[in-house]
Design goal:
The protein has 338 residues and is of the alpha/beta class. Helix 1 packs parallel to helix 4, helix 2 crosses helix 3 and helix 8 packs antiparallel against helix 9. The relative contact order is 0.06. 48% of the residues lie in helices and 13% in strands. Helix 5 links the parallel strand 1 and strand 2. It has eleven helices and nine strands. The strands form two sheets. The chain has a six-stranded parallel beta sheet with strand order 3-2-1-4-5-6. The protein is elongated. It has three domains: 104 residues, Helix Hairpins (Orthogonal Bundle); 123 residues, Rossmann fold (3-Layer(aba) Sandwich); 66 residues, no CATH class. It is found in: Cell membrane. It is a multi-pass membrane protein. Its main location: membrane. One of its GO terms (cellular component) is plasma membrane.
Length: 338
């Protein structure tokens, strides 16, 4: 018994690769050895393999079993050594799976997907953004970067990377270069507004240096700090609190203004804002405007240009990103007609 105990302890301490290799060799030897010792019962190595696996896993169907002295002696050896070995192997597999799950939860695994949306900095605003992405039914993954000890959410297609987003290694773990878009939120744990935007600028600089082709949206706390980002390629700036203040004033002065904006920024109520490409039959913005109007949608912009009503007779460029307002169901109909 002391020898068996020492043997099992050595198995537990054994390197995983060596342990799995030893188990594979033992199974292979046992399969061929039983075929060699009792060819009448074990007619081929596969029958030996079948018996070995049912013995090691303690299933023991009993459809085949050794009948000779040497066969039974080896079977007893396998009972004592092999079953203990399989127990250790199963324990190691469980440890590996548990460790993988723990590392994923703690954000210590590298993300290898692409076309994902990268959210940097966790806060209530990030949570709302994540819910909005889900409402949008975005088919890709979402990757969150923060320094929390564990992932703040447990959702399908949402991955967590723990680390400093200003660190190149962290951005590489999030596969920044293959991302579709980055949304950089201001750090809610810093009190000084200038320091918040300073940290945001540092992270934005790292993003621009490593992946200038990725669409980037940045939240800043103070509007005049945007000029400090002039050397950094940022596609859109969001001034924190500015929209809320603007909506509050508009709601007080005219109820309709805030209601319209609230519908457009939320996918839970009213019509939504969607993007579509130019159809082959549309030459000018007027063609697109009237065609969409007949289908129950309103064309309001091309990308960020809201002035297309003043250039209806201009030709639509091939790369146009037409912004339309309609219901989700109507948008599905319009897209299906392309």
């Amino acid at each position: 018994m002391p020898l068996l105990r020492q043997f099992l302890l050595n198995l537990v301490r054994m390197n995983n690769v060596m342990l799995f290799s030893f188990t594979f060799v033992l199974i292979a030897i046992s399969s061929f050895l039983m075929w060699f010792l009792e060819p009448d019962v074990f007619t081929d190595p596969f029958v030996g393999l079948w018996w070995t696996m049912t013995t090691l896993t303690t299933v023991g169907y009993g459809d085949v079993s050794p009948t000779t002295v040497f066969g039974r002696l080896y079977a007893m050896f396998l009972f004592i050594v092999g079953i203990g070995l399989i127990g250790v192997v199963i324990g190691k597999v469980i440890d590996i799976l548990t460790g993988f799950s723990r590392r994923r939860e703690e954000g210590r695994l590298q993300y290898k997907g692409k076309d994902h949306i990268l959210l940097i900095g966790w806060s209530r605003k990030t949570d709302f953004a994540l819910k909005e992405i889900k409402e949008f039914e975005y088919p890709g993954d979402v990757v969150i970067i923060d320094q929390l000890p564990k992932s703040p959410v447990d959702l399908e297609n949402v991955h967590y990377i723990q680390g400093d987003p200003a660190n190149d290694e962290t951005l590489l773990k999030a596969n920044l270069s293959e991302a579709r878009a980055v949304i950089l939120f201001a750090d809610p744990l810093i009190e000084d507004l200038s320091l918040i935007d300073g940290k945001t600028l540092l992270i934005a600089t790292s993003i621009e240096r490593m992946a200038p082709q990725v669409h980037t949206t940045v939240e800043v706390m103070v509007e005049h700090h945007i000029r400090n980002f002039k050397h950094v390629r940022v596609n859109h700036f969001l001034v924190s609190g500015e929209m809320i203040s603007s909506l509050a004033v508009r709601s007080a002065l005219s109820e309709g203004h805030s209601s319209i904006v609230a519908q457009l920024v939320s996918r839970k109520h009213g019509d939504d804002l969607f993007e579509m490409k130019r159809r082959p039959g549309w030459r000018t913005y007027r063609d697109a405007f009237h065609a969409l109007l007949d289908e129950g949608a309103t064309l309001i912009a091309d990308g960020g240009d809201l002035g297309i009503n003043r250039k209806l007779d201009e030709e639509i460029p091939p790369e146009a990103k037409l912004q339309i307002i309609c219901s989700k169901e109507k948008y599905a109909e319009i897209v299906s007609k392309r």
